Amino acid sequence: MRAKLTILAAFLAGLALPAGAHELSFNECMEGSDFIKHAAMSRDYGLSRDEFIGRLHGDLMAIQAFPPELRWFVQDEEDAALLVSHSERVFDEPRMPQIHQTEFLQVCLTRTGEQAQAEE
User: Fold this and answer.
1) What is the pLDDT of residues 38-89, one digit of tens each?
2) 68 to each of 7, 65, 75, 93, 110, how far by Cα in Å?
3) What is the DSSP string of 51-82?
4) Is 83 exposed, middle or buried (0-12, 13-18, 19+ CB in 10 A)?
5) Interval 6-28: pLDDT, tens
6) Crossing angle for the helix pair 77-92 and 97-119, to the nearest 10 degrees
7) How far apart are alpha carbons 87 and 84 in whole angstroms?
8) How many Å is the maximal CA-CA distance in the chain?
9) Per-residue DSSP letters for the chain?
10) Whole-angstrom distance, CA of residue 120 vs CA of residue 102
11) pTM across the whole model
């Protein structure tokens, strides 16, 4: 019984530790940029900002039910903030979908470079 309590305590302590930022891969940046391009295309086809951002927040809440390693792109708060901020920009500063896609990709890839430098 004591061994089970020790294992449970160690497990719960591990849950309380803050996790490091998720390291985005090149493929995740590409997929994220496609998402942003499609957000801009949705805007061009008449989807409102409130409707799109509302759905995005709902999806992000649903995704959090899965363990981070099983999630696409949004594995932590920084990932979510990156995706939400660029989705909002699609509606707040409308430009061609490809321009939004390129801007997101540049920011995302810069972030991966910063993460790699921080590890050194």
Assistant:
1) 999 999 999 999 999 999 999 999 988 888 878 777 888 899 999 999 999 9
2) 22, 9, 5, 31, 22
3) HHHHHHHHHHHHHTTS-GGGSSS--SHHHHHH
4) buried
5) 332 333 333 333 345 668 889 99
6) 150
7) 5
8) 63
9) -HHHHHHHHHHHHHHHSPPPPP---HHHHHHHHHHHHHHHHHHHTT--HHHHHHHHHHHHHHHTTS-GGGSSS--SHHHHHHHHHHHHHHHHS---HHHHHHHHHHHHHHHHHHHHHHH-
10) 28
11) 0.75
Angle at 25 between CA 23 and CA 28, to 5 degrees: 110
Residue identified by tokens 């949705």 is 42
Distance CA 7, CA 10 (A): 5
- For the record, the structure tokens of 18 come out as 């803050």
Q: C-alpha 36: how far from its chain's center?
A: 11
Query: Which one, of 83, 104, 99, 111, lies nearest residue 25 by Cα?
Result: 111
